[in-house]
Structure formats: structure tokens, C-alpha cells
């Protein structure tokens, strides 16, 4: 078997991972255990939650669907390499006990820092503590590690969201981190909120602001040990690994495909002509693992001294751009290829370019059906949630508008150069070049993955779901006919015109409704 430089690098090395229970973190764990059989221990920072110890949470983690293929390959014995470390990036010293901290100091060789709060609506106090101070706490630990070979910080392409053309470089800090930390620690949320707009300047929210500041925490340490920053854009379902279409994230297209397949999401505020920057989770994980190897290799070439900070964009906008108008007419087809047995109505998703038109259409196509469906749910003893969900979306539109209708171009020349510098074996095993990705096939797999891993519907009931989909189509057509017959009768009743004239007016109403 041909040798892999990256696999050889991680063989025998122990890795410390923050955010290990998240979408990125758990996929890193699976990839390392599956493709680097001689990797050392994987120390996962975890916190006890909802009355469950970290050991209990680890057992839950091992049941994650990311390990389905792993288990089919009968690799469960490698799960013994996982070592839970109780802690939290939001606590002093990461909340790690002195004994566990010493274990990390003595044994860890590589650190992947992926923990963050991704909530765009989170207070500046909380995002400063988790994203900025959390990163500082990780860097402080790294400075104590006796055998550290590399630190990889998972940032975001949107940390520079105030620019629409972004390069793979460190941009000036938006503010003094010490000042922001002091304000966050001394002021209450209300006082911070009053200062927020002034502090954020051109940043759209506290997430991008504090993640930008966090990059400078890593940059400050780059002269002490090898450091890399990766900036993924919107992270989406798996392209190839562990299974095409696999996902546990409801963010981005996975979330709205999930709602659309249920039949409850029928309109989406999105301009299909602008580039949407999506990047598959497996490419992100491969980029993180490759960067950990690469920054250490640069140190070896630099006479044992850390090279300058390495920054890579894990993005698609300038290399493999995706626009929804490339497949707008195919989305519904994919939804009907892989329908849900739990669908409440016939799926039919339309993209709306205007936010005010979306609000208008949401009243008719979201709130009215949700009102009646919630009543039915309540009568049948279920928990009504649709009205609440649609209200949450409605209330978040102003905050998300910038991300929905802005086109960013993230340069990825340095990442592509890194891919070309890899040997053939590593380029195949740790794919970071998406040149061969075809968006049609990818989104077909994504919708199938959403069905199986988010909606929890087995491939075995697909034919049953397709039969139900045809029934829902019949009901959908019947309801439309009934609706337009009602409009026709309403025109006759209100205007007093003949049925023949009303029939001539009806297409005007049909056209106007078609705009919603």
C-alpha cells in the first residue's frame, strides 16, 4: 500500500479536540479513527449536560450516525482511543481538572479548536466568552503542551463579512480584544446591547465580530508553535465521506430541505441568481486535518522554527460557484424522488427574491396552514410547533437579510496550491479540491441524506412514502381547484359580473398569486 504523508504524521500522535460533539468535531473524530488507524488517543473536551456525565455523553457520541459506515467496516475497537476530558471553553482554564490538564500537557501533540457559539443572535457577553476568550484559553493550554506539533483553529469565511472580496490573509483586528473582554466582564447585557452597534462597526453580528478577534489570538501565538486557521463557509452535507449526503446539521440548505420535504416550508427568501457559498463537511474536515500536518511540515523546512501563520479558505464561491438558478427547477423533483412518509402536505418549494414579497407570501402559505395544522396537532394530543417556528423565522429575517441576499467571493488560491502540493495518495484520501464535485448530484444526495439522518426515515419505507406523495399530489390539486373555484365565485358575487366575464378576470388573480 502506498504511503500517506498525512497518515504517517498522525500515526502515534495524540489529538485534543474542542467542539467534539458538534457537526465538525464528531466528523473529525470519525475520519481520524477510520483513515488513520495508528492515530494516538483522541482527547475530546466535553461537558456534563442535562444530568449526564461526560462518560455517558461519550457513549451517546459513539451512537452518532457518523459512525454507521465505520461500524459496517467493523472498526468499533478503535473507539477505545477516545478519551473524554470534562471541561468547557467558556470556563477559566477550560474548566479542566488539574489532573486532566496535566494529562493533556504531557501527551497532546495536535490541537483542533472547533468549539464556538454559532448563534447570530447571541449577546456580546456570551460570544466574547466562548469565541474570543475560549480561543485564548485554548492557546494558553497550547503554550503549556510539552510536545505540541500544531494548532488548527476553525474560524469562518464570514469573519470578514464586511468585505465581499476576501483573501486568505489576516485582516486588521476590528477592536482591542482586551477592551472588549473588559466590557463583557463588567457591563450587563443591557448596557452592552446599547454599545453593540458602535462596537461592531461594519460587522453584521457578534458572532463574526468575536470570531474575527479570535483569529488574532491564534496569530499572536504563531511565532511560538505551528498554527493554522481554516475558514469554512456554510458547511453542508457530506460529498463523499463518511456517506454521500450524510448530515446532522439543520443549518443552511439542510434545514430548509427538511422543512420543504415535510410540506410546511413552501417559500424561501433567496435570490437564485447570486452565488451561495456551500462547502461539504468532509472537505472541511480534510482541510483541518491536512492543515495540522502542513503547518508542522513547514516548521521542519524552516530549520525547526514555526513558519508564518497559515490561513486557508474552505469555500466554493470563486472556484466551483453554485447558484440556485442552476437547479431551481430540480429541487422539487429531488424532494419527490425522496419524499417523507411523515410529510403533512405535498412539497412544493419556491424561491422568492424579495423580502417583502416573502413576508406577504409567508402569511398565505406558512402562517395560515400552520394555524390549522397546529389546531389539528393539539386536538390529536401532539405538541403544536409550526406557528412558533414560522414566527421565529419571521423575526430573524432582518438579521439574516445580509447573509441571504449578499454575494461574497472568497479567494481559495492558497488552498488549491496546498492540494496540488500533496502527494497522490493524500489527495485521494484527504480531498480538499472540489473541482470534480457536481452540484446536481450533490444536492440529490443531500436531500436523500436529510431524509435519512435528519427526518429519521429509513430507506426501507421509501416506496411507501412515494405512494403517499402521489396521494398528497391529488389532494394538493383538488385543494387548488377548490380554491380557484372559490375565487371565481367570489369575483361573481362581489362584482356582479357574468360568469363569462369572471372567467376572464380569474387569470389576473392567478398571475398575481403566482408572484407570491
TrEMBL record:
Signal sequence segment: none
UniProt keyword annotation of Repeat present: no
Molecular function per GO: alcohol-forming long-chain fatty acyl-CoA reductase activity; alcohol-forming very long-chain fatty acyl-CoA reductase activity
Domain (Fatty acyl-CoA reductase C-terminal) ranges: 365-457
Localization per record: Membrane
Transmembrane segments: 356-377, 471-487, 493-513
GO cellular component: membrane; peroxisome
Pfam (any one): Sterile
Gene Ontology annotations of biological process type: long-chain fatty-acyl-CoA metabolic process
Domain Thioester reductase (TE): 17-288
Membrane topology: Multi-pass membrane protein
Major localisation: membrane
Keyword terms, alphabetized: Lipid biosynthesis, Lipid metabolism, Membrane, NADP, Oxidoreductase, Transmembrane, Transmembrane helix
Catalytic activity: a long-chain fatty acyl-CoA + 2 NADPH + 2 H(+) = a long-chain primary fatty alcohol + 2 NADP(+) + CoA
InterPro entries per record: FAR (IPR026055), FAR_C (IPR033640), FAR_NAD-bd (IPR013120), NAD(P)-bd_dom_sf (IPR036291)
SUPFAM superfamilies in alphabetical order: NAD(P)-binding Rossmann-fold domains (SSF51735)
Enzyme Commission number, as recorded: 1.2.1.84
Function, as annotated: Catalyzes the reduction of fatty acyl-CoA to fatty alcohols.
Family: Belongs to the fatty acyl-CoA reductase family.
Protein name listed in UniProt: Fatty acyl-CoA reductase
Organism this protein belongs to: Drosophila pseudoobscura pseudoobscura (Fruit fly)
